[in-house]
């Protein structure tokens, strides 16, 4: 069965990485939510994609330089057509509570490349375990050192390598960082990669798949999950394959 992940929530319609986008993705029938984790100056884990706040909030400053209470006053929907409806930047705990209540998966992407957040891996895993959500969480990152650190902290946590290149035998590389799955950019996936990954017990869940023809193609070749801005469109297509 192919899983349906809302990319930053239902971000094709609603302000990305907001509680509104997460709630709407659940209403649309997603199996999981993909989101991005960064850390404030006072150590709070928050859900926002960019290291800089300008694109989404209009404030030209870095997440790392704002305390949580300061960050909470910014409108995460400022860039969006719905900006008149104020949306705050959520915390990891808020999404964990929502996911637990609705029995959905969370794919947390650790953003620790452009900005290095010391200790972010342990903080995230501690929160996941506090909410007893380990079985419903995947941690991914483009920084594969972060994934190795996650496995050192908790060997049972599921991890996935994010990558945007056509890697040669990514299933072999994945094993070198002890990860459980591949999260490739959509154009770096083909049927051979899926077959080879499955032989090694790995899952394959590409991002960001918004075209319906591509969704159908991936489902037909046995993809494990699809990360999309439009979980409602994917839901309709998945029902056709039941």
Automatic annotation (TrEMBL):
Record domain GP-PDE: where: 2-238
The protein's name in its UniProt record: Glycerophosphoryl diester phosphodiesterase
Entry-linked SUPFAM superfamilies: PLC-like phosphodiesterases
GO biological process: lipid metabolic process
Pfam families tied to this protein: GDPD
GO molecular function (one): phosphoric diester hydrolase activity
UniProt cross-references to CDD domains, sorted A to Z: GDPD_TtGDE_like
